Amino acid sequence: MGVANTIMALAEGVEVMHTTVLGIGERAGNTPMEETVMALLTMYGIDIGLDYSKLTPLANLVQKLSGIAVPTNRPIVGSSLYKIQSGIIAGWYRNCGEKYPTEVFPMHWNLVGQPHAEVAMGKGSGPDSVKIWLDYIGMSASENDVLKILAAVKSHSLKTKKLLSRDDFRKIAEDILGQRAAA
User: Fold this and answer.
1) Over the chain, what HEC string results?
2) How many Å separate Cα 144 from the centre of its chain?
3) Tell me: the pLDDT tens digits for 110-129?
4) Higher confidence at residue 134 or residue 29?
5) Structure confidence by residue, pLDDT tens digits, 129-180
6) Which residues partner with 72 through β-bridges?
7) Cα distances (angstroms) measured from residue 34 to each of 8, 37, 95
8) How many CA atoms lie less than 13 Å away from 110 in the CB half-sphere?
9) How far apart are CA 21 and CA 61, in angstroms?
10) Domain ranges of the chain
11) pLDDT by residue (tens digit) across 79-96?
12) pLDDT of 27 above 90
């Protein structure tokens, strides 16, 4: 509740907020600076003058120096925040993500210093994910073959309990389509 409490205090006239990077501190209850400043900016239009593109690099440095790892899905600075595994979200991204990224994400990755959004391939992927990755490797497939590749991708991901690499995907696609991918 640190972010909400801090924003309410500011709305009531408090002039100084006490936050820490990633909310790291001696005990629980420290307000995460990156979440607070982005809420102020995106929800209330209050720019406190930071270079917001430094938030992710700063969070990464604090994690490294403190030895405290944060979840990959952490708001604003999580390392997998802009990795799309869900098939339906991959479809949205395919249709509008490059041109209108805030239709898919709460804010543009550049704003907070995150790497460019990417579609990941795993157990939650869908047909659009496969089509995107086929484009990456220079291959095309019929709708029926896309579904066969998708089934093999899901099986591989469930068996290995990991996302697929491009090489993993390329091998599956080549096995199913019987053709070599462009290098």
Assistant:
1) CHHHHHHHHHHCCCCCCCCEHHHCCCCCCCCEHHHHHHHHHHHHCCCCCCCHHHHHHHHHHHHHHHCCCCCCCCCCCCCCCCEECCHHHHHHHHHHHCCCHHHCCCCCHHHHCCCCCEECCCCCCCHHHHHHHHHHCCCCCCHHHHHHHHHHHHHHHHHHCCCCCHHHHHHHHHHHHCCCCCC
2) 29
3) 999 999 999 999 999 999 99
4) 134
5) 999 999 999 999 999 999 999 999 999 999 999 999 999 999 999 999 987 7
6) none
7) 17, 5, 30
8) 3
9) 10
10) 2-66, 82-183
11) 999 999 999 999 999 888
12) no
**121's tokens:** 């391939």
Tokens of 168: 């993993």
Residue with tokens 């500011």: 10
Residue with tokens 């070599």: 180
